Amino acid sequence: MRICMVSDFFYPSIGGVEEHVYNLSQMLLALGHKVVVLTHAYGDCSGVRYVTHGLKVYYLPIKVCYNQCILPTAVCNVPMLRAVLLREQVDVVHGHSAFSALAHEALMVGSLLGLKTVFTDHSLFGFADLSAALTNKLLEINLSMVNHAICVSHIGKENTVLRARVAKHRVSVIPNAVDTALFTPDPNRRPDNGVINIVVASRLVYRKGIDLLAGVIPRFKKTPNVNFIIVGDGPKRDLLEEIREKTNMQDRVEILGAVEHAQVREVLVRGHIFVNTSLTEAYCMAIVEAASCGLQVVSTSVGGIPEVLPNSLILLTEPDIEAIYSAILVAIERLRNIATTTSPSAASSNGHIPPKTETNCRSKRAKRRKKQGNDVPFMPATVQMAAIAPGFDSENKTEPVLCPYRCNELVETLYNWEDVAQRTAKVYERVMKERAFTLSELIYAVYQCGAWFLAFLVVGHFMLRLLEYWRPRSRIEVAFEPRSQKGL
Predict the structure, then answer these.
(1) 36, 142, 438, 456 from 446: Cα distances, Å
(2) Residues 6+ apart with CB under 8 A from 105
(3) Comparing 2-177+421-478 with 187-354+361-415, is the CATH topology the same?
(4) What is the rounded distance in angstroms from the CA atom of residue 26 to the CA atom of residue 201?
(5) d(Cα 64, Cα 149) in Å, to the nearest integer?
(6) pTM (2 decimals)?
(7) Which of 259, 256, 196, 182 is nearest to 226 (CA)?
(8) Which of 203, 161, 159 is nearest to 303 (CA)?
(9) Does domain 2-177+421-478 have CATH number 3.40.50.2000?
(10) Nearest-CA neighbor of 353 among 294, 292, 403, 293?
(11) Tens place of pLDDT per residue across the chain (488 aa)
C-alpha cells in the first residue's frame, strides 16, 4: 500500500506525535509499504527531503500560525495537497493529532478524491471550556468524513467517541511503543555516593502539572541526598526557577531546558526515580521510556496512564501535592531497602541489582527472544504481566520490579513498534476493502454535524473540479521512487 502520513508535527520538531509518526513510518517501510510524510516547512527545512531508510518527507511552504500549527483555512492548501496525493499515488491518507490543521485539511481532500482515510487521536480533551468545545466540533466534522479512527488508549477511545460522536466500531485502540534497544539501562551512570536522583522530563506547561511539581520540590529541602533533574522547557520554567531560588536548592535542582530526543536517554540513566505530574494524558510516552531505562516511575493516575504500565513498574497517585510527595517517599524507601531485602552485598551504593543478577536478567531476555522471536501478540498490560511475572496481581499487590534490566525486559515485551505497525496495517487493509464515500454521503455526514461547514466542503469540491479541468490527473507526473522503495 501507499500511505501518506500528515501532521503539523514532525522532525525537526520534537515531541510524542513526531516520534510516533517517524517510528510508525519506518516500521511500515520495513513491512514493505511505501510511506511519505506531509508537514509544513520548519525554517530552512523546506521542500522534499529523504530521511532514514528512504522515508520521503514533503515540507510544504505553508506559514505557521500558532504553536507549530498552520492557519486552519480548510481550502487554501487544496491545490498543494491534491498535487502531492496524486503525484505519490496514495491509497491511504493517515492524519495525526486533533491539533493539526494540516491533517484535517488533508483528510478532507483525501475523502473528496475518493481515497481511504485514517485518523489517529493522541490527546484527551474536556467539554467545558470554549477551546475544547471548538476543537471537539472540528474533530466531529472531520471524523464524519474518515473511514476509521485510532486512539492510543482505551480511555482515549472513550473520550473520542463521546466528544466526536463517532460510532465506537469505527475506532480502534493501538498504543504507542518505545524502542527498548535505544532506551537501555546503565546503572553505572547513577551516583554511587548514596544520592538519589529524581528525573522529570516534560513540557513545562500547566496541563503537565508543573504547579504540582513546584509544590513537591520544596518538601525535599530537608531530605538529604535527594536531587532533581528537570528536562523540558515552557512557560512554567520561570516558576520552577523561582521555587529553586526561594528554597535555596540551586545545587540540588538541575533544570536542563529543552533536550533533543536522542539525548533524553543520557539524562534518564542518571536517575533512580521518574516523576510524571500530568493533569491529563491519553498515553504518556515519557513514563514508558523511563521504565525502559530502569527507573522507578511515580505518576498521577489520570487519563490513560493507568493502562500504560503494570503495577510492578509504576506507583500511581492522585494529582495532589501530598499524594505525589508520599508516593516518591515510597519509591525512595524501596531503593534504600534493596540491601536489606536481598543480602548485604546484593545491592551497590547506586541503588541497582548487582552485576551477577543483571547478567542473569540479560541472559533470560536473550533466551526468551530466541524462543519467541519478535512475534509477540499485544495484550493489555495487566494481562501480559500476569503471564510474564509470577504472582502478578492487578490489585497492586505485586512486588515492584527493581532490577533495571528486568524493567527493560518487561517493557520490551509489552510494547514494540513492529507490533504497532502490524496492527496499523490491519486497519489499512480493513479500510481498503470499504468503498469510497460518495459526494452525497460526505455532504449528508457534514450536514449532520453542522450546516455551516458545508460551505468549506462545497468550496473544496469545486476547487478540485476546477483543478481537474485545469490540470487533469493524467498530466500529473508520477513521483520518482528511490531504489530502496521500488517494487513496494
Answers:
(1) 28, 8, 13, 10
(2) 72, 73, 74, 75, 77, 78, 81
(3) yes
(4) 25
(5) 26
(6) 0.77
(7) 196
(8) 159
(9) yes
(10) 403
(11) 999 999 998 888 777 788 899 999 999 999 999 999 999 998 888 899 999 888 999 999 988 887 677 878 878 899 999 999 999 999 999 999 888 889 999 999 999 999 999 999 988 777 767 777 777 888 888 889 999 999 988 888 998 898 888 889 999 999 888 888 889 999 999 988 889 999 999 889 888 999 999 999 999 999 889 999 999 888 899 999 999 999 999 999 999 988 877 788 999 999 999 999 999 888 888 899 999 999 999 999 998 899 889 988 999 999 999 999 999 999 999 988 874 554 444 444 444 444 444 445 445 545 544 444 444 333 444 334 333 333 333 344 567 878 889 999 999 888 889 999 999 999 999 999 998 899 999 998 888 887 778 888 889 999 999 999 998 988 888 887 766 555 44
3-class SS string, the chain: CEEEEECCCCCCCCCHHHHHHHHHHHHHHHCCCEEEEEEECECCECEEEECHHHCEEEEECCCEEECCEECCCCCCCHHHHHHHHHHCCCCEEEEECCCCHHHHHHHHHHHHCCCEEEEEECCCCCCCCHHHHHHHHHHHHHHCCCCEEEECCHHHHHHHHHHHCCCHHHEEECCCCCCCCCCCCCHHHCCCCCCEEEEEECCCCHHHCHHHHHHHHHHHCCCCCEEEEEECCCCCHHHHHHHHHHCCCCCCEEEEECCCHHHHHHHHCCCCEEEECCCCCCCCHHHHHHHHCCCEEEEECCCCHHHHCCCCCEEEECCCHHHHHHHHHHHHHHHHCHHHHCCCCCCCCCCCCCHHHHHHHHHHHHHHHHHHCCCCCCCCHHHHHHHHCCCCCCCCCCCCCCCHHHHHHHHHHHCCHHHHHHHHHHHHHHHHCCCCCCHHHHHHHHHHHCHHHHHHHHHHHHHHHHHHHHCCHHHCCCCCCCHHHCCC
Task: Please give the grid coordinates belonging to residue 124.
Answer: 484527551
C-alpha distance from residue 160 to each of 107, 153, 233, 344 (Å): 17, 10, 28, 52
Question: Domain residues of the chain, as ranges?
Answer: 2-177+421-478, 187-354+361-415
187-354+361-415 CATH fold:
Rossmann fold (3.40.50)
* The three three-digit cell numbers of residue 390, written as one number: 509470577
